[in-house]
């Protein structure tokens, strides 16, 4: 039996053409960008920034980047600081008007966690500790054998940090982030602001961190698109990988006139 696009996508159909009334929310790593061994080593593919800029115009500004990275990283990689965005899994939100809203960090902060973490990465070569000030991530992409150790110490760190934080598992990463916000809450927050308000939400992402947004978008009758082979997922459409996402976006960006679908 020949393999169809749908079977390659794990039984999920590809997304249709971008709709005229879309409010488009895009994850970065693993979705727009191919993963690298270290987060700072990701490469922005040629033409991606231009496609995002064109889509931003075609959608009347209703395009946002939603990432676990801080806003400063999102802007550096996209080169488009004028975009609405959500960083740190929704703990930071920049509205279309450019107003940055940030969830207040828990009073205890992460200092006790940082002290507890000293030396861990040295004992596990290849494990990278990423300090985002209000969040800490343990990446083991270069040391997949360290997964159990990383998950164990992450659970210890959560006990030390207390109830103001939550653990966020992702693709070869475990992150300690502020509790009470996620990508789903960020999407809903932005949908309350023009030009997003009244539009149909689309969320494209690859990781467990995107599932919160998929569920919110589904509840609103929008389009949810998972990138890559991870299953199960709440997403209702699929694209094979970042290359496929970039090709889909380039096609949407190059269509004449307003987005149609």
TrEMBL record:
<comment type="pathway">
    <text>Glycan biosynthesis; trehalose biosynthesis.</text>
</comment>
<dbReference type="Pfam" id="PF02358">
    <property type="entry name" value="Trehalose_PPase"/>
</dbReference>
<dbReference type="InterPro" id="IPR044651">
    <property type="entry name" value="OTSB-like"/>
</dbReference>
<keyword id="KW-0479">Metal-binding</keyword>
<dbReference type="GO" id="GO:0004805">
    <property type="term" value="F:trehalose-phosphatase activity"/>
</dbReference>
<keyword id="KW-0378">Hydrolase</keyword>
<dbReference type="GO" id="GO:0000287">
    <property type="term" value="F:magnesium ion binding"/>
</dbReference>
<keyword id="KW-0460">Magnesium</keyword>
<dbReference type="InterPro" id="IPR006379">
    <property type="entry name" value="HAD-SF_hydro_IIB"/>
</dbReference>
<dbReference type="InterPro" id="IPR023214">
    <property type="entry name" value="HAD_sf"/>
</dbReference>
<dbReference type="InterPro" id="IPR036412">
    <property type="entry name" value="HAD-like_sf"/>
</dbReference>
<comment type="similarity">
    <text>Belongs to the trehalose phosphatase family.</text>
</comment>
<comment type="function">
    <text>Removes the phosphate from trehalose 6-phosphate to produce free trehalose.</text>
</comment>
<dbReference type="InterPro" id="IPR003337">
    <property type="entry name" value="Trehalose_PPase"/>
</dbReference>
<protein>
    <recommendedName>
        <fullName>Trehalose 6-phosphate phosphatase</fullName>
        <ecNumber>3.1.3.12</ecNumber>
    </recommendedName>
</protein>
<dbReference type="GO" id="GO:0005992">
    <property type="term" value="P:trehalose biosynthetic process"/>
</dbReference>
């Amino acid at each position: 039996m020949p393999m169809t696009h749908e079977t390659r996508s794990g039984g999920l159909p590809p997304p249709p053409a971008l709709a005229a009334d879309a409010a488009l929310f895009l994850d970065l790593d693993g979705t727009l960008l191919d993963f690298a061994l270290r987060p700072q080593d990701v490469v922005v593919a040629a033409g991606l920034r231009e496609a995002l800029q064109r889509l931003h115009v075609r959608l009347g500004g209703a395009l946002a980047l939603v990432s676990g990275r801080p806003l400063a990283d999102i802007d550096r990689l996209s080169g488009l600081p004028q975009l609405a965005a959500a960083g740190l899994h929704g703990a930071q939100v920049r509205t279309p008007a450019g107003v940055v809203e940030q969830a207040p960090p828990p009073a205890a902060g992460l200092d006790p966690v940082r002290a507890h973490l000293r030396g861990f990465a040295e004992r596990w070569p290849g494990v990278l500790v990423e300090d985002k000030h209000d969040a800490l991530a343990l990446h083991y992409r270069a040391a997949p054998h360290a997964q159990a150790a990383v998950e164990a110490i992450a659970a210890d760190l959560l006990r030390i940090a207390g109830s103001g934080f939550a653990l966020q598992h992702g693709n070869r990463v475990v992150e300690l982030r502020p509790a009470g916000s996620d990508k789903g809450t960020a999407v809903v927050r932005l949908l309350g602001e023009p030009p997003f308000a009244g539009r149909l939400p689309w969320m494209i992402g690859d990781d467990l961190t995107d599932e919160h947004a998929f569920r919110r978008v589904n509840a609103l009758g929008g389009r949810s698109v998972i990138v890559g082979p991870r299953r199960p997922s709440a997403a209702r459409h699929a694209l094979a990988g970042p290359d496929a996402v970039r090709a889909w976006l380039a096609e949407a960006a190059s269509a004449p006139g307003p987005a149609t679908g």
